[in-house]
Design a protein that fits this description.
Layout: E1 7-16, H1 22-33, E2 40-44, E3 50-58, H2 61-73, H3 76-81, H4 84-87, E4 93-99, H5 100-104, E5 116-123, H6 130-143
Antiparallel strand pairs: 1-3, 1-5, 2-3, 4-5
Length: 144
């Protein structure tokens, strides 16, 4: 894993609703990202209830590598490899969602509910064309 990942950036985002304990959402984000801190912002939701948004954008190779290794170790890359094409949008961004509750328990699983950690990975392509990004991802998944 010495080569630079084929991504311009990786964004990881989770929302702590007013009914959730923000510390648990933060712990889930720390586990998933592999970082030591995750920035957050506070917005006002319905009826004035606070909503906390945890979001990190990785653009440094070492941070991306750490995150990708976490995915690999959990067996997530093998699952995602089977679904590359439908998860890649026309802007060359690869999307998937992780189960937030499982992440809090330090497990990684693709989400099948609305309680998620959203991940988007922008594939480095020039020119930025979906077909090129798809080839890059297929090669990377096989080699990683």
């Amino acid at each position: 894993m010495s080569a630079k990942p084929p991504f311009l950036n990786i964004r990881i985002r989770a929302i702590a609703q007013a009914t959730e304990m923000k510390e648990r959402v933060e712990a889930a984000m720390l586990f998933v990202s592999g970082l030591e801190e995750v920035p957050s912002s506070r917005i006002e939701g319905h009826f004035g209830n606070p909503i906390i948004i945890f979001e990190v954008e990785m653009s440094k190779a070492r941070d991306m590598k750490k995150f990708l290794q976490i995915l690999k170790d959990a067996g997530m890359l093998a699952l995602l490899m089977e679904e590359i094409e439908p998860r890649l949008d026309d802007d060359c961004v690869f999307h998937f969602r992780l189960d937030k509750q499982k992440a809090y328990a330090e497990e990684l699983e693709l989400a099948d509910s609305k309680d998620i950690i959203d991940v988007s990975m922008k594939v480095a392509t020039y020119p930025a064309r979906r077909e090129i990004a798809l080839d890059i991802l297929l090669d990377w998944f096989v080699d990683f």
